[in-house]
């Protein structure tokens, strides 16, 4: 159902959205409708309204509809049929969003992949999904050609869309797509040793965006798009904006920093944003200039920090702040909690369920337990995924049906422990398994261990998560060489780490790896992880020979951010276990300390304290070698693919 209203509004940010009479189309949730059909109504009512903003470019709803129609017609001509998979191995951009919409119009599902994923990971995922088409750009095509299982048509998406822009209008063949059809497959870490693809239906997305209790979007809103397309936060950003007739402001993929994030928010009048908890905390610590346009900030992915919420609310007192919870299998969000000003609790609840969603706390026999009793959190409703792609056994294990008063009820067992209060608000109490969250990324420690055990040089390998501080965790690895003691432990670690980086996303790589002759065991024969020796880097091994004030500043920043003291001036930041989010924290603190902007690419070019200090001291930022945007993006992808922890 839709409502059609015509109104004239005074635009607060005319550069982003033209001030003109427009029809306001209010869409209501219909579980049987497809995402393209909803967006088409906005395009028909307001063809000149701005849908996408990117580095000064604007794409209207009419242009988005027309170009995605042409691209959908191309896909159908190329043999893409309903239910097929089309892979997106491209960065954030307007063209990427056009391609997503076109794929859905063709009746297919999109498979978004992070452009920094290693070859072995890409090979497994692409081999599992067998996409008919793989969209690339001039940079990523080189990577995809190295993937053995990339047998579908490899197409330069940007070059193709340039041709389609000047092509004659073409009527897209009609493909009947409903709410229950698959819209995308998104891969998450898997406890069985391999990543698993979550298949999401159109209705899961529509239920997230329409007739909701946790958010009210209007045609005047501008949504930030800052998540990598392989992270399910992008689902919220893209489709909540476009199914509500809003503008989507896209953060460029390269040169990502807190300052750049603030600039995009300020320049485009962003009103709504969803950030990972780590990135939200970073924004709270380094608020910079005021962001008056921002009216609603969501964050989630890890346990909330009350102190960071208070800092953010002090800087942005008029902005509503919401803690959001939800696994990929429930289509991004399941519960939310609006944090009031002056909140004085010790921990932030994950809150009450959003519309079209149900929540239960169940015991080991899958029987619902009453309020106040801890158990496993089970989620139901239209956001529940179709299942795990081509994994029927795993689907049957996690997507279960229980008997309820209203009849059989299908839901997803999250593996999260929680408790409901009398008002139906949930509090997170931990995990029932070995899954962790690091920088907003879901990581199954068992998958890392399985990758270690595939290394022929090792008799065994295990990993644990070490907490260094309230907001600082890292993965520690322990390996046992084949045949007992290693002849050269350092060389073994280097080889094992290189193999891991070729097999796993960078955010799953252990920060420190320790070689042991054997692992400590319980009497039962299982590994006793409590007896694994912690690294000795918590304290400095020797006095670090500081030569100037810049090195002293950087050393202090590295120690604080990494949570370790044993930092050498010539050690690579990423080899010490640093992640991209931690590097962003160092970048923000460095700019604050120096009182001047620092190009974030410099931190990737000079990843040691001594090298970065020389760069900062010897070369003024304005005098640095000029790099084109393409060079900077290529450098960032190369560096991050080798070392980084988590993308923005």
UniProtKB/TrEMBL annotation:
Gene Ontology MF: a single term: phosphopantetheine binding
Record GO biological process: amino acid activation for nonribosomal peptide biosynthetic process; secondary metabolite biosynthetic process
Pfam families noted in UniProt: AMP-binding, AMP-binding_C, PP-binding
Carrier domain span: 545-620
Protein keywords: Metal-binding, Phosphopantetheine, Phosphoprotein, Plasmid
Cross-referenced InterPro entries: AA_adenyl_dom, ACP-like_sf, AMP-bd_C, AMP-bd_C_sf, AMP-binding_CS, AMP-dep_synth/lig_dom, PKS_PP-bd, PP-bd_ACP
Keyword hit for Acetylation: no
Top-level taxonomic group: Bacteria
Alphabetized Gene3D superfamilies for the sequence: 3.30.300.30, 3.40.50.980, ACP-like, Luciferase, Domain 3
CC terms in the record's Gene Ontology section: cytoplasm
CDD domains: A_NRPS_Srf_like
Keyword Cytoplasm attached: no
NCBIfam families membership: AA-adenyl-dom
Name of protein: Siderophore biosynthesis non-ribosomal peptide synthetase module
